[in-house]
Write a structure and sequence with these properties.
It is a multi-pass membrane protein. By secondary structure, the chain is mainly alpha-helical. The protein is built from 29 helices and 6 strands. It has a 6-stranded parallel beta sheet with strand order 3-2-1-4-5-6, with helices on both faces.
């Protein structure tokens, strides 16, 4: 849900809610629907950015917008929020279709052990703890089961953001959490199907009727799989040849609606059909284009769905049960965390990792809103109970931003995480100190020629990011002599110093010049002043590269060519400017022999105007 505006969906729904009612500001009928849409758009645009800025995510922002709309406005949508909620459930259908696109059958099979082993076990154990608590509270077994299953699901958006920000996708913690989240993404489909099976039908079905319904449902699923396998890809191939983007978008939406209707016709959930259709297209060559076409509608309708959940929230029930909610939030988080910790230990994770998983996945997630809203609509969950558990999920997501801090307190005397300075595999022909934007680019031609390169950087976050993309960067402070020695400065044929801080660069150069005067140095200079300082340390002028010099001259050359000058004339003009600049720098370096003279020269360095050449020097 990357958008905080809901215009198309609201305007499409508007006529259903605006046909009747008194005039407002002289507006009647459909015009009131437009006004209601504008009000919800304004609230979403207000609360979603604030929620994101506070680190709570977009879901809380949409819920807050819906709560304020239901409490403070008296417009067409707020008169019957359940009708709007039913309309917005199309967002859940699209959401499950996109999830299906991400789950290629081969990928699911390759990760089957982690997903269907650890993930299934954790969800079931957490659900058992929470379901038992709901039964002790006095809920009916059907309602308790849905509450337990819904609260057992974590917030994929919040947990994945934490993993991505710390660059830990490929760490044991990241792999463990991701495998469980993948199962939870899959689990919402059978959970929604379970809601449909638990829904009261007004009478007890016979065994033969139940068996017949099961057979019809299974046949519908098989038929949908066959259609997806043999029809969808050829259909999209034909549509793609028309080169009509809107037709591709319409076809993607049509596939979702068709699959949802097939499932609904046999009494199964819309979401089940959309998910199966997505999985069938996961291996299609058109998958990415279809996902891009569906994404705006998914975000739009899913945002509207959460707004509708907020609007349908029974604030009276929440106010009457505020103490229960306040007590239930820490209790349910603790039960879920205990279940996650137990499963992690059962699967062989050490105590520290299991504890961190428990804190990271202790909160409840946005899937709970989907499940509880569906259960309330199907009369499986009483409306008051649904409002209470939705409030519990909302508050648990709000406090989840403190999970890392809580983990640190619970872990007690654990040492602060650092990266070890491991140089056992160092010793390349070239040592690059500084793996920032300059160091990375400078290494490209070396790597392209098969040269062995050792990278050294002191930024742990940057090293984690590099690791995510398969690049080995050694952690260490280049201003320490022993670190440079361990990284192979004494055996490297060349050392590239690409650090971005002038003082750090100068300190590294001094160590290298003192300890390894024979090493070939190539040094990044921030500006002319630093170039003079580096030259004073004995670095040859040709080995000092000011980071903006070549790019600036190239820009000037390209600008001349854009004005109509020939390529040769533009190149010659840039070369003359380069020569003048080099001569001026050589004069400054020659004057800066002693410390006092060097300080005076550096203090006098200022931008100098370049004389305009005669027109004869720059022919067309």
């Amino acid at each position: 849900m990357r958008r905080a505006v809901l215009p198309a969906a609201l305007l499409a729904a508007g006529p259903a809610f605006a046909a009747e009612g008194p005039a407002i500001f002289g507006l009647v009928g459909l015009e009131i629907g437009f006004l209601a849409a504008l009000a919800l758009i304004a609230l979403a645009c207000l609360f979603v950015p604030v929620s994101r800025a506070l680190g709570l995510g977009t879901v809380i922002g949409y819920l807050a917008a819906g709560i304020v709309a239901g409490f403070g406005l008296s417009l067409s949508f707020t008169n019957d929020p359940l009708e709007l909620l039913h309309f917005a459930e199309f967002g859940v259908v699209l959401f499950l279709f996109v999830i299906g696109l991400e789950f290629r059958p081969a990928r699911l099979w390759a990760m089957r052990g982690a997903i269907f082993g650890r993930g299934l076990t954790q969800v079931m154990i957490c659900a058992a703890f929470l379901c038992a608590a709901a039964l002790l509270y006095g809920l009916d077994w059907r309602a308790a089961l849905i509450v337990g299953l819904g609260l057992a699901l974590s917030s994929t958006a919040l947990v994945m953001r934490q993993i991505d920000e710390s660059g830990e996708r490929n760490t044991p913690f990241g792999k463990t959490v991701i495998s469980v989240l993948l199962f939870e993404d899959l689990a919402i489909v059978p959970f929604l199907l379970l809601v449909a099976l638990l829904a009261p039908t007004g009478g007890e079905a016979s065994l033969a009727a139940s068996a017949g319904a099961f057979a019809i449902g299974a046949a519908a699923i098989v038929a949908l799989i066959l259609i997806g396998h043999y029809v969808l890809d050829p259909m999209f191939r034909v549509i793609a040849r028309t080169r009509t983007p809107e037709l591709m978008t319409a076809a993607a939406l049509g596939v979702v609606i068709f699959a949802a209707l097939i499932m609904a016709s046999v009494g199964l959930s819309y979401a089940m059909g959309a998910f199966i259709a997505g999985v069938m297209l996961a291996d299609s060559s058109y998958r990415h284009e279809i996902e891009a076409d569906i994404e705006p509608f998914r975000g739009l309708f899913l945002g509207l769905f959460f707004v509708a959940v907020g609007m349908s929230l029974d604030l009276g029930a929440v106010a009457d049960n505020w103490l229960l909610i306040a007590l239930a939030v820490p209790v349910t988080i603790a039960l879920k965390g205990a279940g996650a910790y137990a499963v992690s230990r059962l699967f062989g994770s050490p105590h520290d990792l299991a504890l961190r998983v428990a804190f990271a996945m202790g909160q409840h997630g946005e899937f709970g809103f989907v499940l509880f809203a569906a259960a309330a609509s199907a009369l499986v969950l009483p409306a008051e109970t649904a409002s209470i558990v939705i409030a519990i999920v909302t508050l648990s997501m709000a406090v989840s931003s403190q999970s890392e801090r809580a983990y640190g307190l619970a872990a007690g005397t654990r040492e602060r995480e650092t990266m070890e300075e491991d140089f056992t595999d160092a010793g390349g022909a070239v040592l690059v100190v500084g793996f920032g934007r300059v160091g990375q680019l400078a290494a490209q031609p070396l790597l392209a020629e098969g040269t062995s390169v050792t990278f050294l950087d002191h930024d742990a976050d940057r090293i984690r990011d590099a690791r995510r993309f398969g690049t080995r960067v050694h952690f260490g402070d280049g201003t320490r002599q022993e670190v440079l020695e361990a990284a192979g400065a004494g055996t490297a044929r060349a050392v590239v110093v690409a650090t971005d801080d002038p003082e750090t660069t100068l300190a590294i150069v001094r160590i290298l010049r003192r300890r390894h005067p024979e090493a070939a140095l190539v040094v990044r200079a921030h500006d002319r002043i630093q170039a003079v300082r580096l030259a004073a340390e004995g670095i040859h002028k040709d080995a000092i590269l000011r980071e903006t010099r070549a790019s600036a001259l190239s820009m000037g050359e390209r600008a001349l060519r854009a004005l109509g000058h020939s390529e040769e004339a533009a190149r010659e003009a840039a070369e003359r400017a380069d020569v003048r600049d080099a001569e001026r720098l050589a004069e400054q370096v020659a004057l800066a022999r002693g410390k006092e003279a060097r300080d005076a020269v550096i203090a006098a360095i200022a931008p100098e105007p370049t004389a305009r050449p005669a027109r004869a020097e720059l022919p067309n």
